[in-house]
Amino acid sequence: MTIDEQVSTYYNMLLKRNAGEPEFHQAVAEVLDSLKIVLEKDPHYADYGLIQRLCEPERQLIFRVPWVDDDGMVQVNRGFRVQFNSALGPYKGGLRFHPSVNLGIIKFLGFEQIFKNSLTGLPIGGGKGGSDFDPKGKSDAEIMRFCQSFMTELHNHIGEYRDVPAGDIGVGAREIGYLFGQYRRLAGQHESGVLTGKGLTWGGSLVRKEATGYGLVYLTAEMLKAHGESLAGAKVIVSGSGNVAIYAIEKAQELGATVIGFSDSSGWIETPNGVDVAKLREIKEERRERAAVYCDEVEGAICHTDGSIWDLKADVALPCATQNELDGDHARALAANGVRFVAEGANMPSTPEAIEVFRAKGVYFAPGKAANAGGVATSALEMQQNASRDSWSFEYTDQRLHKIMSNIYRTIAATAKEYGHEGDYVLGANIAGFKKVADAMLAQGVI
Ligand code: GLU
């Protein structure tokens, strides 16, 4: 069998065994495609069922999450935790609370997390979890009761050395607080290492909140520098207005860029003069309102409900909203409008067609598993602080994050070059992320 045939056989088996999970198929297809070139060079990476084992989660938990709403009605949601791979360390990855969540989405996120976490260079395996619960429009008391019910099941499966969840879409400081409180109560002890993204007075780390957005911009700056460009004076589009987007906007502007637009699920906001980050944080973090309110409160901002944020003329695009938000047409529009660099703050925001367009048009493209690794990397730094009962300064933690992101860029660029595809960061990220996990799995035997 040729390598192509061998990889197609694995993939077809995976499609059959995981029917109805398109996002998971998409994430695996992209990695397998990159691995063909590794297998040509080093066929031993297919030994001992390595690829099949890598694509099959070590454990998948699905559980009922019943809770009582403010009207006294019983609501039932579904909870998930996919413990994908622990060859490099305890399972690590966020929890997503969003109505779109299903097993396929959690598996795609967990699969990506394996390679992302490997790229950080820190000892963390890959996992992901969440629920189809929609926090939008819920009272604080409802969020709390939901989190308590969710943790009542999850606490049996997590721990400092076992599985360390954190936040993702719909899970921020408030939710982590309620989840941690319930864990502490059930465990009967204060185990700070069981969750990351905690509050600063009870085991949290400075910079964790900003880390995904800041890290994205550090890696983007590194990529621009390697191609003789800089963020100073650049026009940047950032989609989304959640935690990743807010701190990507803040850091990009700090480095001299103008962020000319951001968005939320109901539309996009054009900000020709840049974004007032303090105002955006107040609207999103304190008032928990829609991003569109920004247009009523900041002069010069224009709200759009039709067209696309990707039609803006810019130098750099940072998709920071959600999976598959940027398709082939969007990618063509970006390239036609002069965008030369794209880095993903969200997980898998670009469709496979969009990535093909970027390749064909010579747009440098840093995939999420490299570009947004700053969040989970800083979670691992939080774990280090918890393990040593210490807390580090903002400056020191930020320096560590900066160094990690620069290293990731150097690693993916060098790997792409080594395999004869200079500038193809998708290939570089997939191969570099894979090899470390694969070497550990081979060393540890068939388990
Ligand atoms: N949810 C984030 C991610 O996609 C962070 C996970 C973590 O900190 O464990 O990587």
UniProtKB/TrEMBL annotation:
- Give residues annotated as binding substrate: K92, Q113, K116, G167, S379
> Which InterPro entries does its entry note?
Aminoacid_DH-like_N_sf, Glu/Leu/Phe/Val/Trp_DH, Glu/Leu/Phe/Val/Trp_DH_C, Glu/Leu/Phe/Val/Trp_DH_dimer, Glu/Leu/Phe/Val_DH_AS, Glu_DH, Glu_Leu_Phe_Val_DH, NAD(P)-bd_dom_sf
Which biological process terms from the Gene Ontology are attached to this UniProt entry? glutamate biosynthetic process
Q: Which residues form the active site?
A: K128
Q: Which reaction does it catalyse?
A: L-glutamate + NADP(+) + H2O = 2-oxoglutarate + NH4(+) + NADPH + H(+)
Q: Which residues bind NAD(+)?
A: T212, N243
**Start and end residues of each Glutamate/phenylalanine/leucine/valine/L-tryptophan dehydrogenase C-terminal domain:** 205-445
Q: Where along the sequence does the record put site: Important for catalysis? A: D168
Assigned GO CC terms: cytosol
Tagged with keyword NADP: yes
* Superkingdom of source: Bacteria
UniProtKB keywords: NAD, NADP, Nucleotide-binding, Oxidoreductase
The entry's family comment says:
Belongs to the Glu/Leu/Phe/Val dehydrogenases family.
Q: What does this protein do?
A: Catalyzes the reversible oxidative deamination of glutamate to alpha-ketoglutarate and ammonia.
Its assembly, as annotated, is: Homohexamer.
Identify the NCBIfam families for this entry: PRK09414.1
Query: What is the protein's name according to its record?
Result: Glutamate dehydrogenase
